[in-house]
Structures are given as structure tokens and as C-alpha cells.
UniProtKB/TrEMBL annotation:
<feature type="transmembrane region" description="Helical">
    <location>
        <begin position="95"/>
        <end position="113"/>
    </location>
</feature>
<keyword id="KW-0472">Membrane</keyword>
<feature type="transmembrane region" description="Helical">
    <location>
        <begin position="119"/>
        <end position="137"/>
    </location>
</feature>
<protein>
    <recommendedName>
        <fullName>DUF8050 domain-containing protein</fullName>
    </recommendedName>
</protein>
<dbReference type="Pfam" id="PF26224">
    <property type="entry name" value="DUF8050"/>
</dbReference>
<feature type="domain" description="DUF8050">
    <location>
        <begin position="5"/>
        <end position="143"/>
    </location>
</feature>
<keyword id="KW-0812">Transmembrane</keyword>
<feature type="transmembrane region" description="Helical">
    <location>
        <begin position="12"/>
        <end position="39"/>
    </location>
</feature>
<dbReference type="InterPro" id="IPR058363">
    <property type="entry name" value="DUF8050"/>
</dbReference>
<feature type="transmembrane region" description="Helical">
    <location>
        <begin position="63"/>
        <end position="83"/>
    </location>
</feature>
<keyword id="KW-1133">Transmembrane helix</keyword>
<dbReference type="InterPro" id="IPR026436">
    <property type="entry name" value="CHP04206"/>
</dbReference>
Length: 148
């Protein structure tokens, strides 16, 4: 595994702001689930996450609650990688949070897949786990161990 500096790790983690977390295809329509909202690239329409949550009234379907939970975990990931950049963070925390972000978006994808009628691509899961593996694999292996 190549040695990577903290700045490169931070840039990799920031890519999750622009990569669709879940790609939904249904009935000729495409919806990109982003950390900040829903994006229809053909109509060029954006629904921000707070607006979506407010519009659902009694709340989104249970599987979709993983989306805002993932956003909160991602915010913690950003804070963790920022702490790493000033020698105050533990990369094991960042690595574990990236894995959890991927799990939340896999839950979203699975929920749509089970509904039927959707082609679902859990791109955020793949990207978060790839970042965790590529940049944090030694740290992931050390989760649960304590420095001596």
C-alpha cells in the first residue's frame, strides 16, 4: 500500500460531496441521491435534503432514514479528517466512519431495490469503501487496538 499524505486523504474524503451516493433509474428517469439532496440531471432539478425531509410530512420510508444518518456520519468523517490534518485525529476513526457511511447508503440502495421497478447503483458505498481501503487499510486493521 503506498504511503499517502494527509492532504491527499482529505481530498479523497471530500470527493464524497460530489459523487452520487445512490443512482436510481426508474421509468426512464434518473435520480442521484447526493449527500446534500436529490438531483435530476436531465431536468437539472435539485431538492435539498432539508426540503425533502420537510416535504415528507410524517417522515420518509424507514430505509430512507439511512440517508440523513449517513450525512451526519459523513459530517463526522469530515471533522475527523480535518483533525488528522492538524495531528489531532485518529485515522482509525476516519476509516471506521467511512465504512459506516457506505453501510448507510447500501441500506438506501437495498430499500429501493426491494421496492422493485428501480435499477439501483450504490455508488457512494463503493466510493466510501474504496477510500477506506485505499487510504486507510492499515488503520482499519488496527481498529480495536490501543497504542502502547
Amino acid at each position: 500500500m503506498p504511503h499517502v499524505n494527509r492532504g491527499t486523504r482529505a481530498v479523497a474524503v471530500l470527493t464524497l460531496l460530489v459523487v452520487p451516493w445512490t443512482v436510481l433509474l426508474s421509468g426512464g428517469y434518473v435520480t442521484l441521491v447526493m449527500p446534500w439532496g436529490l438531483f435530476d440531471p436531465f431536468a437539472f432539478h435539485v431538492t435539498l435534503l432539508p426540503d425533502y425531509l420537510a416535504a415528507t410530512g410524517s417522515g420518509p420510508p424507514p430505509f430512507l432514514l439511512s440517508w440523513p444518518i449517513g450525512v451526519v456520519i459523513y459530517a463526522l468523517t469530515l471533522a475527523s479528517v480535518a483533525a488528522e490534518s492538524v495531528n489531532r485525529g485518529d485515522p482509525r476513526v476516519t476509516a471506521g466512519l467511512l465504512v459506516l457511511v457506505g453501510v448507510t447508503q447500501l441500506t438506501v440502495s437495498w430499500g429501493f431495490f426491494r421496492r422493485g421497478g428501480y435499477v439501483v447503483v450504490p455508488l457512494g458505498t463503493l466510493v466510501a469503501w474504496t477510500i477506506a481501503w485505499w487510504f486507510y487499510w492499515p488503520d482499519l486493521r488496527r481498529i480495536g487496538t490501543f497504542p502502547r
